[in-house]
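Handout, page 2. Input:
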Amino acid sequence: MLLAVLLAILVLACWFLVPFAWRKIEERRLARLCRDNRTIVLTYDDGPGPRLTPQLLELLKGHDVPASFFPLGRNATKQPGLVKHILENGHDVSADVKLTRVADVKLAHL
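Output:
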């Protein structure tokens, strides 16, 4: 019984610690890559919104600057045309951690 409890604790610790450690490794790799290439990474979380996102896209387009967008699932499903417009302008769109499976599927089919 004690062995099962210890094994469960070990599995739970790995379940939470491995993604955390991986994220930290990737953050450091990205920071080093940006520093070495004198680059800034622009990211936008949540959204897209019908009022600010089009203005932001025009600003980015005017300066020929790419960005990465992390829309919320509920916002992306309400604004699929805006998400498509973001992609058509050459920006990256990735899943915000709050995306639902349904929203994820809808984003994949844009």
